[in-house]
Design goal:
alpha/beta, five-stranded mixed beta sheet, 10% strand
Length: 503
């Protein structure tokens, strides 16, 4: 029977392995996991290795070992450390039966593990639309996203995503040995990428052991919570070893760094005591437009209405409204659902504050609009026929378990103080990307009804419900033309030689 171990015991065990070889071995497995290479994964042993284990083990090895150890790593070392990771001591679980302890644990685990499930084609296509396509349509924007990205990386967002994809493709064995752009097979790449640009991107994503160790110690946090602390490989997914080679231990971190990482770079750049100019622009002028593109990519069964101003006080409707007969699904877009601190530690007080500030506030806004429609307020004439309302809070930064009974308890308590009692769904952008293509043959309100009336899945995230609901009907989810076409457009910029290395 296994017993828990402390992080320092895992670190001590990890120090016996030669670091550069161990990181490369981990990187090779990570690449297979990202690409869902079934044959290769079967050889590893199904269910024994996963990406969040790998991410922590890479950090533990960097902190503890060096390039001059003699013990090889291989499958045995990986499985041994993975099993030790599975038995790591969790200080917050020591609270035992304290109220909320189990939920706090589930919250931490969900936000640690589930983000690894997003496919690389979705991440790439979404980032290209958000940070390249939509910003080019903005007029008189207070900040120039194109210029900011160009200044940081030496290229625009689309070029960065494609360049990151190329680096990823050439890291299948855990090592990145560079790309010689003078070779004929890279003719397509040379239309937008030169060696200086490539080297600049690689440099911005790379750190040596010393830099990473300092970052690990800076963010390590309390004993017993090491596995939830920030992993600096997210910031620097390429590692320069003491022997001079470059390794990519966690392939997904490389992909995330050149996609959603753009968002966090710009957020940090414009952070100030008075607010954040980028978040303001992103939430109103970029994220909302992206949701509109998803809803309008194909003709759907309902009418899609964009936010408009009404009444003498210049009130605004919800960001998007889907009209299906006498039913209106109100959609309020929010950039953030939970802070990084709340997601990392699962602290119920922090979770409650974030939920009240973001999610509950959005529900109050939709409730106010419903009351105005029911009272037949001037300017809302096109909505006066509506009899039934559905509320959807749509977040860019996903809040897992946002529809759980415990989270709803927090939301409902806050809403009750304002005399509001209603049903609602909290949906993340990834889920909306899966829902939107279904609306050509399913009413959104019907999907919401089916979920809320289901005795089990009413308290699950929407994508979990969708998998079961559609599976029972023998149907499958499609990505939809917006993302699939954008992904194909991105990968068409590089040669078939490169894209074949990603599989």
């Amino acid at each position: 029977m296994s017993t828990t171990i402390k992080a320092h015991e895992l670190y001590w065990y990890a120090r016996r392995y030669r670091l550069d070889l161990a990181l490369a071995e981990i990187g090779s497995v990570s690449f297979k996991l990202l690409n869902n290479n079934d044959d290769a994964l079967k050889k590893l042993g199904p269910g024994r290795i996963n990406e969040w284990q790998i991410a922590f083990l890479a950090k533990a090895l960097i902190l503890s070992s060096n390039d001059y150890r003699s013990k090889p790593f291989g499958d045995l070392g990986l499985f041994t450390l993975a099993n030790k990771y599975n038995n790591l001591f969790d200080a917050l679980l020591e609270k035992g039966q304290e109220e909320g302890a189990a939920f706090s644990f589930l919250y931490r685990m969900a936000h640690q593990q589930l983000p690894f499930q997003v496919g690389h084609n979705t991440l790439m296509a979404r980032a290209a639309i958000l940070f390249h396509d939509i910003p080019k349509t903005l007029k008189d924007a207070p900040i120039n996203i194109d210029r900011d990205i160009e200044e940081y990386y030496g290229m625009n967002a689309e070029e960065l995503i494609v360049t990151g994809f190329c680096i990823l493709c050439f890291s299948g064995n855990g090592y990145f040995q560079g790309i010689n752009l003078s070779e004929p097979k890279f003719d397509n790449l040379r239309t937008f990428l030169n060696q200086d640009k490539l080297d600049r991107v690689v440099s911005s994503l790379t750190a040596d052991y010393s830099t990473l160790r300092n970052e690990i110690k800076l963010h390590e946090g309390t004993d017993g919570l090491e596995q939830y602390a920030f992993n600096p490989l997210r910031q620097y997914p390429i590692v320069r070893t003491d022997r001079g080679s470059l390794v990519v231990p966690v392939t997904r971190f490389l992909l995330e760094r050149v996609t959603t990482g753009i968002f966090y770079n710009l957020m940090d750049k414009y952070k100030s005591r008075s607010g954040n100019a980028f978040l303001t622009l992103f939430g109103k002028d970029i994220f909302e437009k992206y949701i509109g593109l998803l809803l309008n990519q194909q003709p759907i069964l309902g009418e899609v209405i964009e936010e408009f101003v009404y009444g003498s006080m210049n009130d605004k409707t919800s960001d998007w409204i889907i009209i299906e007969g006498e039913v209106a699904t109100l959609i309020e877009c929010k950039t953030s659902g939970l802070s990084l601190e709340a997601k990392s530690w699962g602290d119920l007080e922090l979770i409650a504050k974030d939920i009240e500030r973001h999610i509950a506030q959005a529900i109050k806004q939709m409730h106010n609009l419903e009351m105005n429609i029911r009272q037949k307020k001037r300017g809302l004439e096109r909505l006066h026929h509506i009899k039934h309302f559905k509320y959807v809070v749509l977040t860019f930064d996903r809040a897992y378990l946002a529809n759980s009974a415990k989270t709803k308890e927090i939301i409902d308590l806050h809403l009750s103080k304002h005399g509001i009692k209603t049903q609602y769904e909290v949906i993340a952008v990834k889920e909306m990307e899966e829902i939107a293509p279904l609306l050509t043959r399913h009413k959104f309100s019907d999907l919401i009804d089916a979920k809320q009336k289901h005795s089990e899945y009413c308290n699950f995230d929407f994508d979990v419900f969708l998998s079961t609901h559609l599976g029972d009907k023998g149907l499958r989810r499609d990505q939809g033309p917006l993302l699939s076409q954008r992904f194909n457009n991105l990968t068409n910029r590089v040669s078939s030689y490169i894209t074949s290395k990603a599989s």
